[in-house]
Design a protein that fits this description.
Layout lengths: L8 H11 L2 H5 L4 H13 L13 H10 L6 H7 L9 H10 L5 H9 L8 E3 H10 L6 H8 L5 E2 L2 E3 H25 L1 H4 L23 H7 L15 H5 L5 E7 L19 E11 L5 E10 L3 E9 L18 E8 L1 E10 L2 E3 L2 E8 L2 E8 L19 E3 L5 E3 L1 H14 L9 H11 L6 H10 L2 E2 L2 E2 L1 H14 L5 H9 L11 E10 L5 E9 L3 H13 L1 E5 L2 E10 L4 E7 L5 E6 L6 E3 L5 E6 L3 E10 L6 E10 L19 H11 L14
Helix pairs in contact: 1-10, 3-10, 7-10, 10-20
């Protein structure tokens, strides 16, 4: 979701400031690079290292303000809830994408509403009433500080036109100063910025441009080896530390042929059940999916498979998400749901099908679907024309377009979990929870049954169509609510399924008929993270980091993917820097070649999943991992100059620049 440099004056000012740096004079930065340089500049005005976390509302507000934002207390509370303990640099970048910079036009419009004489000024008495009695109130001392600014006050009036101009200039000045500091300070310039990286100081002059890590994330391009060229400045980051452990794994085309999934010979005589589900990609990149309970009545040989669900009706043109990897972790319930034991996972593969064969005893099992996230990730794809969902016929009646009807049929196919061509209340509620966050109770379902086509108390395809048409009629043809539903189900404005991957699970047993029921739709974390870590620790290779006997890197490889897990047995948290720059034909779930992870004491965590970009070619996984101590605070003096508010933010930033007490513009706190 790239930010357009011309979207508003604030970002234009930032672009102008950035373009004056020595690097950008010779090689103009892309919009994405401009955005992340702005992020880094703002973050490093508050912290010495971007591996340091935001641990308070005050720090969040200060960093946002230095990025040209003007957040209200309501905005701050949206991102810093009572459950929030910390935010990292990645979280900060996500917030900046959502909260647009304050523009000069927006400021002028706000002030103009108070300009009773339409002369570009506001009486000090009116300004005082506004700032002390409305919205997030300021103190008398804070208002006096504003009206004492000589450049924007005269004859008992506040010149808001001059103020807005001064405010925009101040933003540009702050950003320019910070960027210049980054250019001069080589230590800062080589710093690892959270999960994001800074490009080389010198652009590659060759005809093929060197892609930035963010471009790699979007297009999954193969990384360049930089032979004979200046190395990325972040490559130097790893050289500052002692190399602790390094891996090189060469994977050929279908390298583990012996691990190919094969069906049991007598499977036609086994009893089978089936269920569908879906992976959904959230705004923050997290993946959620259905989770299941399976019951096995007696000890049996079991054959389980999971694969992407093909919805395409065109022969020879399969659904594009069939390349997404899928897996199923099987955990046995012992005494309670909280006590789950990892039994196995579907590590064998035959094309897009992943499976497992083995013996399971009687009992209750949890099936947790998983995808690495290497191929199911957000894509920045410009949509030239928004699809039409509804239209009015010759009689003025509202109807669904052919394209929208086709999409609704695909959605019906996905949410019809048992595949019987009907939607039960339980199946429909998964759809409702996903699209509206609410459930349909028995009474509402009875109303639905009375008004729409049902069969055996379940909604038919036609009933589902009519239900969506009713929603369109309720809004008099306004498609906005329909688009909310479509976006929640993973569709873009062109009605393409780009942020979801439906799948289908098949379970065979030779001695009894298995039973399966979808029970949750949750994030692929928590219990899944534990299961992945456990499987990698059981099956992977372990390497102790040099000089750190309590830090162990476990690496599991199959013919499809490689997973790295870091185990920290020490009493202290550690930061591990990962460098994948020498890997070839690889893509990882983080979308970056260089990043850092923080591992809590006495814990394990998934470091990364890696897959080949092109499965028909050899791929080389080369990962270098080094340790770092947790970065300290900047230790500089903090000066209180105000607190956040709808108008106070711009005032505070000016006070920050005018403050005679500041040691540098980056050290002042904006909360009282």
């Amino acid at each position: 979701m790239a930010i357009s440099p011309g979207r508003d004056a604030a970002f234009s000012s930032q672009k102008s400031a950035l373009s004056e740096s020595p690097r950008t004079k010779k090689f103009p930065l892309t919009e994405e690079e401009l955005f992340y340089m702005n992020c880094r500049a703002a973050y490093l005005t508050v912290f010495k290292s971007s591996l340091e976390n935001i641990i308070s509302k005050e720090q969040l507000y200060l960093a946002l303000q230095h990025a040209g934002r003007n957040p209200s207390q309501k905005t701050i509370n949206k991102y810093w809830t009572p459950q929030t303990a910390k935010l990292n640099f990645d979280d900060f970048c996500i917030i900046l994408r959502k909260e647009k910079p304050t523009s000069k036009a927006e400021l002028l419009k706000s002030f103009k509403q108070l300009d009773v004489n339409d002369d570009g000024s506001i009486l000090h008495t009116d300004l005082y009433k506004l700032l002390t009695k409305r919205g997030e109130k300021m103190t008398r001392e804070e208002v006096n500080a504003i009206i004492s600014l000589a450049d924007v006050n005269a004859d008992g009036k506040f010149d808001y036109i001059k103020f807005c101009k001064l405010y925009m200039t101040t933003i540009e000045q702050c950003l320019k100063t910070t960027v210049e500091k980054l250019e001069v300070d080589s230590k800062l310039k080589r710093q690892q910025f959270g999960s994001h990286t800074e490009g080389s100081p010198e652009r590659d002059p060759s005809p093929v441009p060197k892609p930035s890590p963010r471009i790699i994330r979007k297009t999954d391009q193969e990384t360049f080896s930089n032979k004979g060229d200046t190395r990325s400045s972040l490559m130097a980051t790893t050289r500052k530390f002692k190399t602790s452990v390094s891996f090189t794994i060469i994977m050929g085309v279908n390298s583990n042929r012996n691990s190919k999934l094969t069906e049991p010979n007598s499977i036609k005589e086994w009893q089978c059940v089936q269920s569908k589900g879906c992976f959904f990609l959230e705004e923050d990149g997290e993946i959620i999916s259905h989770q299941y309970r399976m019951q096995i009545a007696q000890r049996s040989m079991v054959y389980l498979t999971i694969k992407p669900l093909n919805l395409s009706q065109v022969e020879g043109k399969p659904s594009p998400w069939l390349s997404v990897d899928t897996a199923l972790y099987i955990l046995k319930e012992n005494e309670s749901q909280a006590n789950l034991q990892l039994m196995c996972f579907t590590e064998l593969r035959n094309r897009e099908v992943f499976g497992w064969t083995g013996e399971l005893g009687p009992g209750i099992y949890w099936l947790i679907p998983s995808t690495t996230g290497c191929r199911l990730k957000k894509e920045i794809k410009p949509i030239t024309e928004e699809a039409q969902l509804v239209y009015r016929d010759e009689t003025g009646e509202l109807s669904l377009t052919k394209e929208f009807r086709s999409t609704l049929l695909d959605i019906f196919e996905v949410i019809d979990l048992d595949g019987n061509g009907l939607l039960s209340l339980e199946e429909y509620n998964f759809f409702e929870l996903r699209t509206s966050g609410e459930k349909c109770d028995e009474d509402a379902w009875a109303v639905c049954r009375d008004n729409f086509d049902t069969k055996k108390n379940e909604l038919t395809r036609q009933g589902f169509m009519d239900l969506n048409l009713m929603e369109a009629n309720d809004r008099e043809g306004d498609p906005r609510d329909l688009w909310v539903t479509l976006h929640s189900m993973g569709y873009n404005k062109a009605l393409e399924l780009t942020e979801a991957c439906p799948f289908i699970i098949d379970i065979y047993a030779d001695k009894c008929k298995p039973r399966i029921k979808a029970v949750h739709m949750e994030a692929c974390s928590g219990q899944l993270e534990k299961a992945i870590c456990k499987s990698v620790l059981n099956k992977g290779d372990a390497r102790v980091m040099d000089g750190y006997e309590n830090i162990i890197v476990h690496t599991y490889k199959c013919d499809t993917w490689i997973t790295s897990v870091i185990e920290n047995k020490s009493d202290n948290k550690v930061i591990i820097h990962i460098n994948n720059e020498l890997s070839k034909n690889c893509v990882n779930n983080r979308g970056l070649n260089i990043f850092a992870v923080e591992v809590a004491s006495k814990s394990t965590m998934v470091c990364q999943h890696v897959m080949p970009l092109n499965e028909r070619q050899e791929w080389i996984y080369h990962s270098q991992k080094v340790t770092d101590s947790h970065p300290c605070h900047c230790g500089q003096k903090h000066v209180v100059v105000g607190r956040p508010g709808s108008l106070l933010g711009p005032f505070s930033l000016l006070l920050l620049v005018y403050s005679p007490f500041k040691t540098c513009f980056s050290t002042s706190s904006l909360y009282s």
